[in-house]
Amino acid sequence: MTRSARITFCLFVAASLIAPKTAASGEILTFEHSLHLDVLHEKNMSLRPSADTRPRDRQDRIAAKLRFSAEFDPDGPLTGFVEFELRRDIDDRQARPRETGTELRLREAYLELEDVLAPNLDLRIGRWDYEDTRRWLIDARLDGIWMRYRGERIEADILAARENQFREDLLDRESRDGDTDYIAGLFRYEINTQIELGAHAIWQQETDGNRDRLRLLGARAQGEALDQLSYWADVSWTETARNGRKQRGRGVDLGGKWQFDHPLKPRLTLGLVQGSGNFRQPDLHSNEGSLGQDIETFYYGEVLRPELANLTVLTIGAGMTFDEKLSADVYWRDYRLDNSEHGLRGAALRADPVSGGALGQGVDVVIGYRPAKNIAIDGAFGWFEPGSAFAGTRQGRAFAARLELTWKFWIVSKKFLVAQLAKAFHQTEVVCRAAGVNGIIARIGRTDRNPECDTCKPLD
Length: 460
What we know:
By secondary structure, the protein is mainly beta. The chain has helices spanning 3-17, 418-434, 440-444; strands at 29-43, 58-72, 78-93, 99-113, 121-131, 139-150, 154-162, 180-192, 195-206, 213-224, 229-242, 245-259, 267-275, 288-290, 296-298, 311-321, 326-337, 357-372, 375-386, 398-413. The strands form 2 sheets. The protein has an 18-stranded antiparallel beta barrel. Strands 14-15 form a two-stranded antiparallel ribbon. Mean pLDDT is 84; it is low at 18-25, 412-421 and 439-460.
């Protein structure tokens, strides 16, 4: 990271820290900060049986993240947004040295033009975060162009982008690894307040020597069939070309949730998904979202976390909301591998099945707690019991647990005044020094031009 980049980041933090603590109408510049702590614990992901005298593998991953964002929204068609993430990662795996790392990520940086070329047509250029409604197709930050049309009942997105075309970690010159182009179109039509239909097309092309590609076409329906029943249905067809060989596949994801009319909001969830051996999801998906209340979980299990390929998963869940702050859901899943030749794709397990058929069963417990509007605490625990597909090789139970803490706080700035910046220099001195900036406070902070500012004094 260059010296000028460190100074820019330091001043960005300084400006955000001094903004007034109350929002006002007509603000041009708005800051948002958030603290995140993600903890993941995995045990026996290689499925060693209990009779194995070797210690079961264990891995702990901790990520502490501090995010700073600023939105520029003047009275006009042009707006802008930028978000940085300063993070510290710890990876502790049994029988291996502990790995640590510090990153300064540029999460988003874009300009947006509203009503460009035509009414209700917006254009976004730069690095932006995009999610489809279920994150079954796309959940990623992309560099490129995003055009959206917003009608009364129709919404259409056109994307032309590349992942990590520019450096993601500003501290690492090698973090630019974008070698895949994406062109996508996602369309949604709201028939009424209870039924929404959608269609999507995604083209994925690698730019390296392999020139592998993926083409995906699909349709989606989601909404509420009754007052207490919500549902979703996704179906997609893919054609892939890898090493000159073309393959076609199909993926289906069906499910529904019935919520009873009771103060505890008891609910039942049922889901069935099937992906053929040659089906591939785009490399941008996360398969993570809400199945129960507002608690996010991995659609296909907390332990496996697989891609929907060569796999059939039956999900049965039950949960309730004890009050507006605390919710809990339990999910049972049955996994079947369609074809042993294609294996299990994208799973977190470090063991490979040796045959098709019964892959195993899993149980997940997902808990969400919202003590305040800007604080979220989510936890999940998962167990996986391998089936006959692992017979003769691995038969031990795997376990995974994760904890996610989020604290958001918003502050709004009125003006960039020298006096306001001077107030922040004391608070950001540690940040500046940590970023490798020495002497910046002494040079910029020498001001006593504002007699109403108690802290506008030379900083020696």
